[in-house]
Request: fold
Amino acid sequence: MIKVGRNSILFSDVYLVSSGTVCGSKEHDGPMGKYIDKYYEDSYAGCDSWEKSEQKMLNDAIKIALSKEGITEHSIDLFVGGDLNNQLACTNYTVKNYAFPYLGVYAACSTLTESLIVASTFIDSNYGNYILASASSHNATSERQFRYPTEYGGQKPSSITSTATGCGVALLSSIPSYIQITKATIGRVVESNIVDAQDLGRAMAPACCETLRNHLHDFAVTPDEYDLILTGDLSTYGSSCFKKMAEAYGIKLGDNYNDSGLMLYDLEKQHVHAGGSGCGCVSLVSLGYVLKKMYENKLKKVLIIATGALMNPVMVAQQENIPSIAHAIVLERVK
Amino acid sequence: MKNKIYNQILDNEQIKRPIIKNSIKAFIIGGLICAFGELLIMLFNKGFKIDLDTSKMLMSFVLVLITAILTGFGVFDKIGEVAGAGTIVPITGFANSLTASALESKSEGIITGILTNMFKLAGAVIATAIISAFIIGSIIYFVRV
Reply:
């Protein structure tokens, strides 16, 4: 593991050996549904609260990731993960059933890549053989946390995104496998001039562009280097602003660019306004779709820039600008 | 950190809200709800021979009940999505905010959940009503004296 430039890391032996993804019915009905391991028709997943249902989904994703590799929880040296609930309630309460060491992380909707970066760093420092990294979100738990009660009949602006119900768990190891985590770029907190919590896609675009620029600069590469550049949940308005920002700095994003928020749902048929969002959005698309395409050798080198609006309802009410962050990782097909 | 170029692009790319379209929809749907309310008053007053003041009160009860039921069945948020101010401004908006908050908090129990959070959204409406009633009441009192 070496530090590259001011923001980036070059890993030497970190492999993504397996993954587990679980989603809700809306995500299952979307174009990414067929790449996701398990889904629940009911938003409660048979539990008596939405919080418990998110925990059940995360627990299932952990079990799936472990079973694919054929190992048990006793082989896990560390678990790194987070979600969108206050005090990381979902992840903390899920992990309480396990005996492995645990680090909780929060980077809003960019939690997946933050978890992966932290986990990769531990793998490359010889901390252990197997480390789990997770991120999860649930539409209903996030709505009540950050917005209005789910049944509130207010009008939503076209810029609002729909928080995805989904959990993604990645199993990382130093034992060589098909997919290697080669690089990472740690994000900086960028303040946008947006105060509207219903316009988070645009609020995150600056942080995303900043990380892309830093990544390209640190490793001296161009966007053509990648088969796919996948951003987290910028959605319709955010991704168009992001492209314009990149262009302003002379970075031209071509057909190899896409946004998880635009991929997870069928924007025309499913009622999701500007697209999908939440930790679950980028987790389902990258650990479901992207990994599958990499196993099939259709994608060889992928840059994932998960984006997170670091908004806080109190600060939003105080009319403060919304700051954002974006962390990037590079997945490469090897062997 | 802050970057002028990024923020300039965000300023240039403002999202246009369909204010006129929304206002027309709100006017029509809100108007229909109010017309329905008038019909109810007429029904109670003329049909059931209940005095006018009581009929008006009963009309509010019926609208609140209908909204609460529609909210419980998960239908009202879809209507509100289209109607906007058309369903928020009449008493239906008040009823929906109460029911939605109560439903949302039921997993936290009756006292710490439902009773504590029921007025989370409607609290502003009630506080405004009390303050304006006090101001108007005071004006009337002093002007009359």
Observations:
- Chain A touches chain B at residues 48-51, 144, 148-159, 188-194, 199, 202, 205-206, 209-210, 237, 240-241, 244-245, 248-249 (CB under 8 Å).
- The mean pLDDT of chain A is 96.
- Residues 48 and 264 of chain A are 27 Å apart (CA to CA).
